């Protein structure tokens, strides 16, 4: 059971003041990409930077990076043990995410980072990360309907929760592509706090930086990532003067094209896990907004081959299956349904019943073959590879499914004697 609040994290970190400044990022979609862009650019510019995102991708500690490198497992376990002992000694009863947040923040102290790029776990106002006080800039990414059982049933209610990270005296960056209801709610909070706000406009990148406009004209950047890049650059321009007053941001912008965010529109070959050699598309889309982005990409990039798309899907329990998958899976497509396994450190996350997924997908008019594989992910992938032949294959519906596949692939590489870096 998730119970939001700041009292437990406050007690966990009461005796250890944070020694670094933060960039704090909230939103429904785009937080991870924005944090990746910021971490990469700060590190490139010589700033010692830590990054904390959630959930983890393959191992619990890979959600924490120092200078763009995943923190060493030994250090993570050492600091985590200290935090858990403190929790037990003081009788705090902190949640798994609160323990992880405290561990990340203590690691940032230990590693003497200058800046921590911190992604909100859920919501904002009562999220454990909102214990941050020395914040350089707050960022609000794209907001949509998600986690309604905790954050509210309307865009306005959810936006108010996410706007809870805004603080007096701290400038903020707002993704200007947000819905009017979101922008209006944010504007009310911004006026209430009298904070300086920058609204990003990805259709006019030169307003943010001439170098950003040049980048967009020379490389193929997806629309949602244009918005995320604009947010990152705007946040960096607000933060850098407080860190490196003489550093120019524009020369760093070309570095954006080198940043990869695993599990989001990721092209990857799955051999030696399976015999297929052609790359597949791996995407953790798990809500309506991210699924819409995935659907647009698939329609534009993959359906141009004029072959049906084959899907391997899973979803977390509680998701609206029809609204998640029906808009992106089309007539003639083939679908394998499966279930991800237990999520380390997140025991409350459960997979939806694959049979239920299959029944929902089968109602799509003109759908091709649909088959449920229960929790046998490898069997689902093998079937999907056979169905797709050399045609397009997409894995989607949950970042936890993506994680399981990447772990299976890592193990296959180890067994083949050719270990591969997954992240």
UniProtKB/TrEMBL annotation:
Transmembrane segments: none annotated. Coiled coil: none annotated. It comes from the Eukaryota. SUPFAM superfamilies: MurD-like peptide ligases, catalytic domain, MurD-like peptide ligases, peptide-binding domain. One of its GO terms (biological process) is one-carbon metabolic process. Pathway: Cofactor biosynthesis; tetrahydrofolylpolyglutamate biosynthesis. InterPro entries: Folylpolyglutamate_synth, Folylpolyglutamate_synth_CS, Mur-like_cat_sf, Mur_ligase_C_dom_sf. This is Dihydrofolate synthetase. Belongs to the folylpolyglutamate synthase family. PANTHER family: DIHYDROFOLATE SYNTHETASE-RELATED, FOLYLPOLYGLUTAMATE SYNTHASE-RELATED. Its EC number is 6.3.2.12. It comes from Petromyces alliaceus (Aspergillus alliaceus).
């Amino acid at each position: 059971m998730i119970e939001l609040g700041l009292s437990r994290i406050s007690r966990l970190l009461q005796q250890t003041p944070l020694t670094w400044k933060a960039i704090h990022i909230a939103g429904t979609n785009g937080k991870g990409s924005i944090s990746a862009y910021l971490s990469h650019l700060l590190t490139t510019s010589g700033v010692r930077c830590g990054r904390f995102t959630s959930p983890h991708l393959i191992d619990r500690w890979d959600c924490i990076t120092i200078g763009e490198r995943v923190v060493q497992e030994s250090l993570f376990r050492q600091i985590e043990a200290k935090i858990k002992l403190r929790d037990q000694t003081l009788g705090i009863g902190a949640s798994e995410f609160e323990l992880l947040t405290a561990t990340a923040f203590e690691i940032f102290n230990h590693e003497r980072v200058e800046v921590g790029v911190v992604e909100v776990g859920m919501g904002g106002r009562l999220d454990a990360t909102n214990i941050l006080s020395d914040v350089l800039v707050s960022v609000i990414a794209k907001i949509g309907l998600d986690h309604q059982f905790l954050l509210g049933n309307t865009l306005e209610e959810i936006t108010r929760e996410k706007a809870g990270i805004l603080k007096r005296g701290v400038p903020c960056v707002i993704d200007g592509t947000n819905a009017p209801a979101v922008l209006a709610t944010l504007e009310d909070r911004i006026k209430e706090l009298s904070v300086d706000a920058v609204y990003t406009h990805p259709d006019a990148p030169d307003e943010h930086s001439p170098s950003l406009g040049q980048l967009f004209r020379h490389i193929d950047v997806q629309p949602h990532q244009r918005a995320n890049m604009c947010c990152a650059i705007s946040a960096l321009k607000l933060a850098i003067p407080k860190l490196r007053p003489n550093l120019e941001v524009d020369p760093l912008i070309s570095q954006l094209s080198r940043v990869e965010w695993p599990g989001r529109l990721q092209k990857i070959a799955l051999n030696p896990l399976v015999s297929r050699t052609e790359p597949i598309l791996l995407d953790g889309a798990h809500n309506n907004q991210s699924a819409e982005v995935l659907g647009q990409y698939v329609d534009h990039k993959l359906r141009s081959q004029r072959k049906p798309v084959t899907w391997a899907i899973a979803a977390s329990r509680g998701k609206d299956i029809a609204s998640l998958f029906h808009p992106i899976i089309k007539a003639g497509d083939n679908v394998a349904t499966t279930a991800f396994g237990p999520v380390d450190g997140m025991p409350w996350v459960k997979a939806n019943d694959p049979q239920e997924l299959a029944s929902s997908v089968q109602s799509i008019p003109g759908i091709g073959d649909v088959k449920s594989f229960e929790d046998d992910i490898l069997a689902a992938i093998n079937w999907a590879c056979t169905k797709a032949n050399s045609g397009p294959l997409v894995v989607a519906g949950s970042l936890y499914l993506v994680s399981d596949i990447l772990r299976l692939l890592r193990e296959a590489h180890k067994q083949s004697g050719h270990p591969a870096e997954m992240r």
